[in-house]
Amino acid sequence: MGFLHLLVFNFAVTITVSAGTSSLRDCPVGQFKLNGMNECRELLKCSDLKNLKVGKRIGVGSTKVVHVASWNGLNVAVSQVNNDKFTADFEHGLEMLHKYSSSQYVVQLIGFCKIKRIIVTEYHELGNATSILSIIEKRYGSQNIAVRLKMCLNYARILELLHDGPGGTRVMCDSNDLEKLLSQLLVTDDIRLVLNDMDALPSVDKNTGSKIKCGGRELLGDFIAPEQKWPYSGPFKDAAMPGYDEKTDIWKAADVFKFLISDIDSNYDWVRYRLFNLFRSCKDPDPNLRPTSKYLVSVLEKILAEVSLAKTEL
Question: For 163-185, how does the pLDDT look when each residue is reduced to its tens digit (9 = 90+)?
Fold first, then answer.
């Protein structure tokens, strides 16, 4: 039985299409334009996917399996949900891609086939951000403080989009450790970060004070925020677990930034000092005292501007 024939049955699939380094958001809503295309075209639909050719598997997890494929000569990646219980996550991810499709900080939506549970988005050859440091080192060498700060700013702007964007206030729930969080991001050919996995972005309602919980199990480890941990004695009970908000993302942002600026040149110790104060504020035990993502963006913009000025004066 052919792979496309299988798609008709109980599978949820994500297809990812290759994108170039130029701006991909110059098309009206409901259209897309990829590298090599002369004009925008309507989002792909079910009938457009019949020429899909699936190649080798390039990744597998508890939720999805990923294959290299091609569609009408374009490189693609096919992510297939391998358990029906994750269908709701798939549909949520599609909804989020629709909401945020106009942003340069989110993978571009190219099309979808809801009946077959297929989503078409960009493919980025460099993969996810777990390998971002080696990519930066290979592309820019060891003197790359500005590039690393740009990555920090890039991530802060992704958080700003989620916390104050077209989808309300969203929280990155699929981020219980650093590697898992980085795996949600793709690295573009021109070394930018774009949010790719949007299957777990619950909404905080600021008007009603309604908060969220990331799943129904107990969360453990130093990476997650204190308010995400079971606060009572005795066994964990999801019904009794208090909710929390987007400030959990701010707690984790400090560790993302530390990772991105690790091993920077000693000539920029003043940058470490400036960032140390920012990291400390992100790690405040009281989530209400942590900065907003908008504040993170403003501070990182200032530091990056100072680094650029310092390089000019050398």
Answer: 999 999 999 999 999 999 999 99
Average pLDDT score over residue span 111-120: 82
Look-up: residue for tokens 């549970």?
A: 117
Residue 270 tokens read as: 């003043």
Residue 30 region by backbone torsions, left for phi larger than 0, else alpha for psi between -120 and 50, else beta = left
Q: For the segment 50-74, what is each residue's pLDDT rounded down to a tens digit?
A: 877 878 887 777 677 777 778 777 7
Q: Which residues of 30-50 are buried (b: 16+ CB within 10 A; e: fewer)?
A: eebbbeeeeeeeebbeeebbe
Question: Which pLDDT score, from 0 to 100, does residue 88 have?
Answer: 87
pLDDT in tens, 247-305: 999 999 999 999 999 877 667 778 888 898 999 999 999 999 999 999 999 999 999 99
3-state secondary structure the chain: CCHHHHHCCCCEEEEEEECCCCCCCCCCCCEECCCCCCCCEECECHHHHCCCEEEEEEEECCCEEEEEEEECCEEEEEEEECCHHHHHHHHHHHHHHHHHCCCCCECCEEEEECCCCEEEEEECCCCEHHHHHHHHHHHHCCCCHHHHHHHHHHHHHHHHHHHCECCEEECCCCCCCHHHHHCCEEECCCCCEEECCCCCCCEEECCCCECECCCCCCCCCCCCCHHHCCCCCCCCCHHHCCCECCHHHHHHHHHHHHHHCCCCCHHHHHHHHHHHHHHHHHCCCCHHHCCCHHHHHHHHHHHHHHHHHHHHHC
Q: Is the pTM of this model over 0.85?
A: yes
Least confident of 71-75, 220-224, 235-239: 71-75
What is the rounded CA–CA span in Å between residue 68 and residue 126? 13
